[in-house]
Amino acid sequence: QVQLVESGGGLVPAGGSLRLSCAASGRTFSSYAMGWFRQAPGKEREFVTAISGSGGIRYYADSVEGRFTISRDNAKNTVYLEMNSLKPEDTAVYYCAAGGAGARQVRRSPEYWGQGTQVTVSS
């Protein structure tokens, strides 16, 4: 089992930045690809970004590429999401996710989910 706990959400102005963290309590953290998803009110949960276990492979949704950066520190069992140039449409609950089948697969069917953290971008 992998337990995931997100933190770092909050209220930021448009154009601002925010860094989310996801702490994982499972063993062999480096064996898991990690990802971030988000869900805005009235919308389906959508993929944001994913990273391989070693950190060498990254994927980004078109809507965030160039603005968001995913990274991980396996020594700390933590994955990060740095968000820059935030837009009101980035407002959503952001969920950390993990999966053992690689970054490409975790984009579509993660095995584990965090509880989510709210990000609100004001205009």
Number of helices: 1
Output the radius of gyration.
Answer: 13 Å
The parts where pLDDT drops under 50 for at least 5 residues are none
Terminus-to-terminus distance: 40 Å
Mean pLDDT: 96
Helix content: under 10%
SSE string: EEEEEEEEEHEE
Largest sheet: 7 strands, mixed
By oligomeric state, this entry counts as single chain
Name the structural class. mainly beta
Shape: globular
Strand content: over 45%
Work out the number of β strands: 11
List keywords for this structure.
11 strands, 123 residues, mainly beta, globular, 4-stranded antiparallel sheet, 7-stranded mixed sheet
Short description, anyone?
The chain has one helix at 103-106; strands at 4-7, 10-13, 18-24, 33-39, 46-51, 58-60, 68-73, 78-83, 92-99, 112-113, 117-122. The protein has 123 residues and is mainly beta.
Question: How would you characterize this protein structure?
Answer:
- By secondary structure, this protein is mainly beta.
- It contains one helix and eleven strands.
- The strands form two sheets. Strands 2, 4, 5, 6, 9, 10 and 11 form a seven-stranded mixed sheet that branches.
- The chain has one helix at residues 103-106; strands at 4-7, 10-13, 18-24, 33-39, 46-51, 58-60, 68-73, 78-83, 92-99, 112-113, 117-122.
